[in-house]
Amino acid sequence: MNTLLAEVLDAHGGLDRWNALTMVRATIVSGGDMFVIKGMPQDPTPREMTVWLHEQHASVTPFGAADQKTDFTAGRVSIEEVDGRVVAERNDPRKSFRGHDLSTPWDPLDRAYFNGYALWTYLTTPFLLAMPGFTITEIEPWREADELWRGLRAAFPPDIASHSPQQDFYFGPDHLLRRHDYHVDIAGGFAAAQYVYDTVEADGIRLPTKRRAYRSDADNRPVLSQIMVSIDVSNARFT
Questions:
Q1: Is residue 231 a contact partner of residue 204, using CB atoms and an 8 Å limit?
Q2: Which value, in Å, is the radius of gyration of the alpha carbons in the chain?
Q3: Domain that holds residue 130
Q4: What is the pLDDT, as a whole number, of residue 76?
Q5: What pTM was estimated for this model as a whole?
Q6: Domain count of the chain?
Q7: What is the pLDDT of residue 1?
């Protein structure tokens, strides 16, 4: 295993602890201009996010109505009643984004797909980087104010749905995550820099509770005048 990745995993709770767990549930509040652009502005209602740790599977409730939830895997996304009755579903959902740019409107299943893969990625970071099929290399560090953040570049396997096939993760001197860079391929491929804050410990795992994603300029600097996506996480419980 890459030496920096091993240090990062230890700082976030350790791979042995992670492998002893199967699921995380957390309260999320999300927002940002991207959802407005997509014609689906996000209200501030707290939602319950459930993520399976060792397979790409996620669900959020409520979604669209108080008695509805989503069910996401890489190959299928659905909106369901809480009793399991399917309201709407889409197989091979990535195909529906072909030809999209940033201004292309989303439908509820598009939104459910984005929520599923994005929150699965965030709530399993950095441990997903140790999953089979990922290729990890250390890259040039990023200087932010008076800190130097070491970086890892991850090539994602094709069976994992995420923002883009290649993503960069930057870690502070304490080896905790500080920044996550990617391209949002399902929204025209714009470059994004996501900063994370306020790390807490939950059941032996350390994770950030605030995420703010911005568009990146040509120098990889965040355009701070516009928050594309914001996510606040609370009450995380691992089982």
A1: no
A2: 17
A3: 3-238
A4: 98
A5: 0.97
A6: 1
A7: 83
